[in-house]
Design goal:
mainly alpha; 4 helices; flat
Length: about 140
């Protein structure tokens, strides 16, 4: 049953993690990351169409003119298995001074955050690094 994929070896108490080389574990992690990216990319395209059709159907059920809906589906970057490695890479590039703060924020957050949020994050980071001083108002 294990060979057919019906029962996990872990269910039987077989620890397959210790039997794999580091290279095999890294390859498995890469495949998992690629699979996740493929699934989320497909869902980000398919779900808006499905939700739009459901909402238009609901409008029809209520006997009102179907509206045009703008549906945005986004999966956060935190769930990505390679987020940690991206943080490490971008952090090193920032530490060596070969990547601007704006580029770092864009590389880390991409489309998962809106432009306004990213602009505020850039300001916060620059302020914390002492590259930009906060305006102090005296009342």
């Amino acid at each position: 049953m294990c060979l057919q994929g019906l029962v996990s070896p872990a269910t039987l108490g077989i620890d397959v993690g210790k039997m794999q080389s580091a290279e095999a574990q890294q390859e498995k992690k890469d495949v998992t990351g690629n699979t996740r990216n493929t699934i989320t990319t497909t869902l980000e395209k398919a779900l808006p169409s499905l939700i739009n059709a459901v909402l238009k159907t609901y409008d029809n059920m209520l006997e009102i003119e179907p509206k045009e809906y703008e549906i945005i589906v986004s999966f956060g970057e935190y769930g990505s298995p390679d987020f940690d490695s991206r943080v490490e890479t971008v952090g090193k590039a920032g530490a060596y001074g070969i990547m601007s703060v704006q580029t770092q924020v864009e590389e880390l957050w991409g489309s998962s955050k809106d432009d306004e949020w990213k602009a505020e994050e850039v300001k916060r980071i620059r302020r914390e690094k002492g590259l930009e001083s906060e305006e102090i108002s005296l009342a």
